[in-house]
Amino acid sequence: LATNVGKTFGDDEPLQKITINGRKFVNVDTTTSRGIERAKRTNLISSGLVDVIVTTDLFEIAHLFNEDIMGRAFAFFRHPVERDLDDMRAGVTVPPDFMTRQMLNKTYGDGDLNLRDLGQAKKIIKEKVLPGMVDDLFMLSVDRISKYFGWEPIGETCVQKYSKDLPRDLLADRTDGTDPDWVLVEPVDVFDIQVHEMARSNFRAHYQTIIPLHKQIEFYGPKKDEDE
Question: Helix, strand, or coil here: 71?
Fold first, then answer.
């Protein structure tokens, strides 16, 4: 696993696995531009040391892969209104449409987002990302993604512990302009809200199309010679 755990190690150290509290990590930070650059320089993907990369910079991480070594992206989406209200309560400045800009690698100095940007962000989610939801569908999301990749399920108690504090109100009935929280945040996240809805729509569509790993192997794996 490559995460921000790698930030505690120097850039000049050789790439290697480390064990912390019984969990295996790689000593590279994939959550920062500097760490991702080190991952490129040390050939993290071809090293065979990592199975899962955790990052918020999908655009930069994509450059670690190539036609010979391809990845499969999955992401957990939290509703922008819930996210930004939490930031506001914590006194954190909320940047407009942060998620959409991050996906497109488009900074605030690059100008305003437009409908073409929105279409590109939706296309990325539809074609490139296996979505999970950070709301009342979180447990189902973890189960679906784990089965797709063939991962051993983590303790249910661990997932339940995290999910118990997640929002249950999906804000689906709060778009009529009568909810003060929605009115406060919607102008800030016009594009993010639509991108989130695309992720949720894709999640629903995947109910019948996402196949667990053991089924993938059964259906598409090597076939035995019929003469054997």
Answer: coil
